[in-house]
């Protein structure tokens, strides 16, 4: 009986959420251009209503998600940063908690909007935009080639925000998470050029070696996790480590191998290079037959030396007897 009640409640909740979704879409479609403040208030109320839904239940279809977000992108300007922040949460909820297919056209529409927001919006909303970009690029690196340069090129946005000298650790953390997803290689899909990936690799190593005295231990641990995962992604994708940075990688691994365990004392990593290969060539192990041969040889040698000693003793005794006889005759 309890299970049937649960099913009824779930069905009622599903129907209610679909009604709310349809109502919100109608409100956005019927927005009349006029007073900007009234329009912003209506959009704000719609986004609050959508973000307040229960996303543990699947109620979005791919077509509904595409239609809804397309309308939102048209009505939410970059200057309304609080609306951009709420739209970031809505996109993240839809893509991570609903069974929505991220088709190429829809993916590019989202990336166009949020890469633009990253350039224009203020820093207080930058972390939300970066978190949304991390969701969008996850497992989609091969389908976003035109955005590689803007994200991880020589002047890429992610490299700027993930720099260890960047003052805001929250923005740096969100950018490192995005870098972690960008460096993850999907099988049979294109991958960014080695030069750009090498820049990401060097940046993550710099974060590994930078001691942040202004952050607490928990924040430092949060920063280290995407850094180490990103390094792993690059090494797995390229199947090699740049020779100039192998000492940094080994030093970082040694320093953080047991990081987080009770009693572990954190120390700043240092360059650690492998010891040179020894030039000494060890002798081959003896075969049992060779050992038996050497044993017989040594045994024969011992017997020969024993015989020689006995012969010497016998000759000495004979000479002593001859001397005694000569002394008696004399």
Tell me what the structure shows.
- With about 325 residues, the chain is mainly α.
- The protein has 13 helices and no strands.
- The longest helix has about 40 residues, at about 290-330.
* Strand runs, count: 0
N-to-C series of helices and strands: HHHHHHHHHHHHH
Span between termini: 137 Å
Largest sheet geometry: none
Instruction: Using the CA coordinates, give the radius of gyration.
Output: 38 Å
Indicate the mean pLDDT.
83
Overall morphology? elongated
Low-confidence stretches: 1-8
Which structural category fits the helices and strands? mainly alpha
Helix content: 55-70%
Strand content: under 5%
Please give the count of helices: 13
What structural keywords apply?
330 residues, mainly alpha, 66% helix, disordered N terminus
Please describe the topology of this protein.
Elements lengths: L1 H28 L6 H16 L10 H14 L5 H17 L6 H17 L5 H12 L10 H5 L4 H5 L7 H14 L11 H16 L7 H22 L7 H10 L32 H42 L1
Helix pairs in contact: 1-2, 2-4, 3-5, 4-6, 5-6, 6-9, 9-11, 10-11
């Amino acid at each position: 009986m309890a299970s049937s009640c649960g099913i009824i409640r779930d069905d009622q909740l599903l129907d209610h959420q679909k009604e709310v979704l349809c109502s919100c879409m109608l409100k956005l479609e019927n927005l009349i251009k006029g007073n900007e403040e009234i329009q912003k208030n209506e959009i704000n109320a719609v986004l609050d209503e959508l973000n307040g839904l229960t996303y543990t239940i699947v109620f979005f279809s791919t077509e509904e998600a595409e239609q809804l977000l397309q309308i939102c992108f048209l009505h939410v300007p970059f200057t309304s940063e609080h609306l951009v922040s709420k739209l970031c949460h809505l996109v993240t909820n839809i893509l991570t908690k609903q069974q929505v297919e991220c088709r190429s056209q829809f993916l590019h529409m989202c990336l166009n909007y949020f890469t633009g927001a990253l350039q224009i919006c203020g820093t207080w909303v930058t972390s939300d935009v970066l978190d949304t970009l991390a969701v969008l690029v996850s497992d989609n690196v091969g389908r976003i080639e035109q955005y590689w340069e803007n994200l991880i090129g020589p002047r890429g946005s992610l490299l700027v925000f993930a720099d260890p000298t960047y003052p805001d650790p929250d923005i740096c953390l969100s950018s490192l998470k995005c870098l972690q997803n960008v460096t993850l290689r999907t099988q049979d899909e294109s991958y960014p050029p080695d030069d750009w990936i090498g820049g990401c690799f060097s940046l993550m190593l710099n974060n590994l070696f930078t001691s942040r005295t202004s952050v607490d231990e928990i924040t430092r641990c949060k920063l280290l996790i995407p850094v180490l995962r990103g390094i792993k992604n690059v090494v797995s994708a390229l199947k090699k480590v740049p020779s100039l940075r192998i000492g940094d990688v080994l030093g970082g691994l040694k320093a953080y191998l047991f990081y987080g365990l009770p009693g572990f004392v954190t120390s700043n990593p240092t360059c650690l290079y492998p010891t040179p290969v020894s030039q000494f060539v060890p002798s081959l192990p003896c075969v049992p037959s060779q050992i038996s041969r050497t044993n017989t040889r040594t045994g024969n040698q011992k017997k020969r030396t024993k015989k020689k000693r006995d012969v010497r003793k016998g000759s000495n005794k004979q000479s002593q007897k001859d001397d005694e006889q000569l002394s008696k005759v004399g």
